[in-house]
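Lab notebook, bench 4. The sequencing result for the construct came back, and we need a structural model before the next group meeting so we can plan mutations. Quick request posted to the team channel:

Model the 3D structure of this chain.
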Amino acid sequence: MKLQLLMCAGLLCMGLSGCNKEVTRFPKSDHYILRYQNPSSMYAETKSAADTPPIGSTPAKVTDGHFVVYTRPYSSPALSESKDLVDDATFETLAERFGDTHFGGTTIDCLSVPVMYVQTESVNIVSDNDYDADHPAGSSLNDLFVIQYKCVDNILKKPYDFEPTDEQQKWGLPAWCFAEKVSDFNLRRPTLLQFNFIFSPVTDPERSGIHRFTITWANIEGKVLSATTQPVQLVGKSL
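Done. Here's the predicted structure in C-alpha cell form:
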C-alpha cells in the first residue's frame, strides 16, 4: 500500500512545478496562482497500474488489486485545465481575497494548474457492489480510500511558505501535495485545491466482483458534482 501510495502521489504532483534547465527568461508575476476555476462537470475513471485490459473488454479486469480512481472536470486532461476559468476581473478580486498579490517570482515558479476558490464541503466515494461486510453497496467508503490532491491553502497562509509539513516530508511530498483518508480530507475542508483527485484503496474488497464507483463532491455554496466510473472487475481477498 505504501509503495502504491507513493507512486500515485508522485503521478499527482508531476508537472505541477519544476525546473527548466534551458536558458529561458520568464516574466515576473505578482501572483503565485495564475488561474482560478469554477468547475461545472466531473469525470471519473478507474485504472490499474499493472493491467491493460483488452480492447473492447467489458468490464475491465484488475487482477492484482492495485487500482485507483481518477477524477477531473472532463475526460480530456487538457480541457480539465483550460475550461471554466474565471475572467480577469474576478481573478484580480480573488487574488486580493487570498492575499496573492506580491509573489515576486517568475512565472516558471508559479502554480501551473488551476485551483478552485470556494471551500470544499465534502467528497464521498461509494460502490454499487458490496465492498465488505461493513460496507454494503451504496455505503460510504471514505474510511477505506486515500485521496491524493494538490492544495495551496497552507502556502498562502503565511504567505508563500513552501516548507512541507512533517507528514509531507515523511512521504517525500512537496508543500502542495497531500494524501490522506477521504474521511480526514472532509475534516480539513480545503479551499484552494485543484479539481483533480486520485482515490486508492487501503484494502481489497472482501470478494471478487464488478464495481462501479461514484464520486460526489460538494462545496459550501451548495454546488454538487458527481461522476461514476465504468464497471471494473476486482479480485477480492476471498476468490
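Helices lie at 2-13, 77-82, 88-97, 153-157, 166-171, 182-188.
Will bring this to the meeting.
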